[in-house]
């Protein structure tokens, strides 16, 4: 009678135990009466950023001819609202431009009478670069609030205090109400504020 080795007996017992317990790789059972779960693919919709109401026209450094009320120690914000080519020519005659950043493309954005040109410059600020810019514009009826920002980390050649940082943007005329004057409030860093009223005619 043949002899059964202990190793063979152990192997046979192990096979029976694995078959009885199902092992660790048991497949999940599927109930044929259950409806398959639908996988819904959702695409993340990314809303496009709303473009600002204003468009860049020009910036740089200017020296106004009527500077009697300001000195090297003053901090005065001056503004202008321009609606015609004649008003733009008059403004250009009142300031001496030291350096401008605008190009032919940006300068052509000020087309009258369909545009309103907003100008602001700061007396006197001896800093580097071109730091003044429009960062916000809100129009509520006959009231428009223009927020300005002064970049403290501007880079570039340093200009003397006689040249004030200037920025110029254009806004479509149809963004403003057709009747009555519009009150423009220019604010710089929440500190300086200038109010100007214009009929936009």
Describe the structure.
The protein is of the alpha+beta class. It has one domain. The protein is built from three helices and nine strands; from the N terminus they run H-E-E-H-E-H-E-E-E-E-E-E. The protein has helices at residues 6-21, 85-94, 104-107; strands at 54-64, 76-82, 95-100, 115-123, 132-140, 143-150, 164-172, 182-188, 192-198. Strands 2-4-7-1-3 form a five-stranded antiparallel sheet. The longest helix is centred in the first third of the chain and has 16 residues, at 6-21. The N and C termini lie far apart (121 Å). Mean pLDDT is 80; it is low at 15-19 and 23-30.
Number of strands: 9
Mean pLDDT: 80
Q: Radius of gyration in whole Å, from Cα? A: 36 Å
The secondary structure category is alpha+beta
Percent in strands? 35-45%
In whole angstroms, the N-to-C terminal distance is 121 Å
Low confidence ranges:
15-19, 23-30
Largest sheet: 5 strands, antiparallel
- Main-sheet strand order equals 2-4-7-1-3
> Helical element count?
3
Q: Shape, please?
A: globular
In a nutshell, what does this entry contain?
This protein has 201 residues and is α+β, with helices and mostly antiparallel strands.
Features:
alpha+beta, 15% helix, 201 residues, 5-stranded antiparallel β-sheet, 4-stranded mixed β-sheet, 3 helices
List the helices and strands and how they pair.
Elements: H1 6-21, E1 54-64, E2 76-82, H2 85-94, E3 95-100, H3 104-107, E4 115-123, E5 132-140, E6 143-150, E7 164-172, E8 182-188, E9 192-198
Parallel strand pairs: 6-8
Antiparallel strand pairs: 1-3, 1-7, 2-4, 4-7, 5-6, 8-9
């Amino acid at each position: 009678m043949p002899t059964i080795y202990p190793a063979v007996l152990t192997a046979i017992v192990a096979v029976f135990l694995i078959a009885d317990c199902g092992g660790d790789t048991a497949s999940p059972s599927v109930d044929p009466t259950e409806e398959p779960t639908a996988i819904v693919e959702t695409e993340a919709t990314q809303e496009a950023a709303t473009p600002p109401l204003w468009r860049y026209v020009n910036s740089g450094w200017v020296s106004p001819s009527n500077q009697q009320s300001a000195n090297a120690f003053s901090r005065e914000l001056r503004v202008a609202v321009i609606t015609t080519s004649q008003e733009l020519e008059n403004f250009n005659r009142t300031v001496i431009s030291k350096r401008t950043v605008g190009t032919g493309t940006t300068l052509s954005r000020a087309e009258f009478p369909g545009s309103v040109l907003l100008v602001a410059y700061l007396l006197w600020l001896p800093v580097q670069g071109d730091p003044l810019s429009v960062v916000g514009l809100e129009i509520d009826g006959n009231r428009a609030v223009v927020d300005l920002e002064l970049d403290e980390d501007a880079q570039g050649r340093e200009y003397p205090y006689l040249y004030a940082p200037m920025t110029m943007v254009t806004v479509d005329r149809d963004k403003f109400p057709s009747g009555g004057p519009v009150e423009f409030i220019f604010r710089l860093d929440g500190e300086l504020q200038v109010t100007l009223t214009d009929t936009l005619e």
